[in-house]
Amino acid sequence: MEKIEYDFLAKPYFDEWTFVLLPKELSAEIRENFKVLEEGWGRMRVTAKLGNSEWQTAIWFDTKQGVYLLPLKAKIRRQENVLPGEEIRVSVLIDTA
Asked: Fewest CB atoms within 10 A around its CB: which of 60, 63, 69, 89?
């Protein structure tokens, strides 16, 4: 089972939900190479990493913005001390098997 890792910097977006937007170019590359792995509503299962935390989640493709959205769980935000407006390094790993 091979996993492809994509690493990027992003500022969390705090609203009712907290998430980061994957960069447009990265989103385009992921969608081009792995769209077949998407489930309903552009949902793709991934493993996410932030600091020392790693968790199973999903990214969703936002057709209006042309990017994937990665939700950040409150538990992860607390563990990694994520603050509004602060740029963070995030990784998503896509299971290609």
From this structure: 63
List, for residues 59-90, the tens digit of each pLDDT value.
Answer: 999 999 999 999 999 999 999 999 888 999 99
The pTM score is 0.91
Closest C-alpha among 46, 36, 39, 42 to residue 67: 42
Burial class (CB in 10 A: 0-12, 13-18, 19+), 77: middle
- Strands annotated E in the chain: 3-10, 13-14, 18-21, 43-50, 53-62, 67-71, 88-95
In angstroms, the Cα distances linking 15 to 20, 34, 46 are 11, 28, 22
CATH code where residue 31 lies:
2.40.30.100
- Containing domain of residue 16, as a range? 3-95
